[in-house]
Design a protein that fits this description.
By secondary structure, the chain is α+β, with helices and mostly antiparallel strands. The protein is built from two helices and 21 strands. It has helices at 3-27, 253-286; strands at 37-43, 46-50, 66-69, 72-79, 86-88, 95-98, 102-107, 110-114, 120-121, 127-128, 136-139, 155-156, 167-174, 179-186, 192-200, 202-204, 212-215, 218-220, 229-231, 240-243, 245-247.
Length: 289
């Protein structure tokens, strides 16, 4: 059987995978916080037909090895964590991270990470994702003080959880440092005060590409992502927060349409290898009539 038949099949599989990844990138062109992926190919085994030989003397030089490749395979898929453009929404609870880091969310008791900052306050005042998963951070005391910003002290955060006695929350604002500042009115004399009620956490990893995609724009820590480092926005390597806007997908449509053409032509070329190999086999069969 011709090697080229199986080589062509490997090419079809590889370019079909490239098409799948490209299609997923295009499908998520408007997904908040989405990071595009790329496919990398590498050749498979090569059959050695004749080994190399060393030079013998002044009259006999060396020869190079003769090898026939046996196809292609997908070497891996990498994720581009470059910053996406900003989509201005004007909503106070829409936020993006300017720089490195991920928001930390509690998904069914599991700690996950996301770049999608489309949040809301629920009925209890808890900051949640569109799926209702609580955003993690640090809750302030009733006097407005926030303790150590470590992973061990991290919890769900609420705008209603640190209301001073005898006051009512009338408004809030979220700063670039992740601090949620509440505006409180005294129920007796009507005086207004401002104090911190919570602070949003940001997580960083030594190898972002090692994170596993977990769906719903969330990522999960893996053995190759490195240990998570959780701190407040703007501290260490963490980026600062910007409210009133969301980070858009970093998909480049021009590049994706180019990849679409490349994968299509690659698939067609490998299909032609298979049909041509079949014609050669047909000629061999026709030798005996």
């Amino acid at each position: 059987m011709l090697r080229s038949l199986f080589t062509g099949i490997s090419g079809l599989r590889a370019h079909q995978m490239m098409m799948d990844v490209t299609g997923n990138n295009i499908a998520n062109v408007n997904t908040t916080g989405f990071k595009n992926s790329q496919v990398t190919f590498q050749d498979t085994f090569s059959q050695l037909l004749e080994g190399a030989s060393a030079p013998q003397d002044a009259n006999q030089g060396g020869t190079n090895p003769s090898q026939v490749g046996l196809g292609v395979r997908v070497a891996g898929m990498s994720t581009n964590f470059g910053q996406g453009a900003t989509q201005v929404t004007g909503r106070d609870t829409d936020m993006r991270i300017d720089g490195e880091g991920f928001f930390v969310v509690n998904v069914g008791g599991e700690q996950m990470y996301t770049r999608a900052g489309s949040f809301n306050f629920d009925e209890n005042g808890t900051l949640v994702t569109p799926e209702g998963n609580p955003v993690q951070g640090w809750q302030a005391q009733n006097d407005g003080t926030i303790g150590a910003t470590t992973e061990a002290t991290m919890t769900n955060i609420s705008r209603n959880g640190s209301t001073p006695a005898g006051h009512t929350l009338t408004g809030y604002k979220i700063g670039a440092d992740g601090v949620i500042t509440g505006v409180f009115r005294n129920n007796t004399d009507g005086n207004v005060i401002q104090q911190s009620v919570a602070r949003i956490a940001v997580a960083t990893f030594t190898n972002n590409e090692g994170l596993e995609k977990a769906g719903s724009s969330n990522y999960r820590e893996s053995v190759n992502s490195g240990d998570v480092t959780i701190n407040a926005p703007g501290q260490g390597a963490n980026g600062r927060l910007a409210t009133g806007g969301l980070e858009m997908s970093n998909v480049d449509l021009a590049q994706e349409f180019t990849n679409l053409i490349i994968s299509q032509r690659g698939f067609q070329a490998n299909s032609r290898v298979i049909t041509t190999s079949d014609e050669l086999l047909q000629e061999l069969v026709n030798l005996k009539r």
